[in-house]
Design a protein that fits this description.
Elements (H helix, E strand, L loop, with lengths): L1 E3 L10 E5 L8 H15 L2 E10 L1 H12 L7 E5 L3 H7 L1 E9 H7 L7 H16 L7 H17 L1
Parallel strand pairs: 2-3, 3-5
Antiparallel strand pairs: 1-2, 4-5
Amino acid sequence: MTLVSPDMTPYEAPLAIENEHPNLQLDIEKIKTLVHLVLDGEGFTLTYLGIVLSDHEAIHAMNREHLGHDYETDVLSFPLQSDHHIRTYKQVEGEIYVDLDTALEVAPEYHTVFEQEALRYIVHGLLHLMGYDDATDAQRKQMSMSEDRYLKAM
């Protein structure tokens, strides 16, 4: 099922949220609110954002097929524009794939609940689409702090 905001404004541009998970789901309005918080906070506009909520099997297959990584992961993000375009125009255009199974499984480890963990993955993927990286400890710390800030603002 694909949901596109019926009250779209130019600011929102296409925001498509698709739930492909057979049993788990997230509140669509919370996702939209969170996306807007991050866009505003980072000074970005939205050209197009697709968010797909899925399961271990689908995310693992995408990770293997598109990135050559044969392991499960919590979130994948795919920019649909160049790094130069992202930095120059501060526009988000891309797709985020979230593994809801992982969020459910690891939430207790992080002393949180399923929904909060899954929303963290969305913020993480969105930050990647804005040019953030998490290859080093310092970058991971910066992303984590940003994630915390936006989740707390919810």
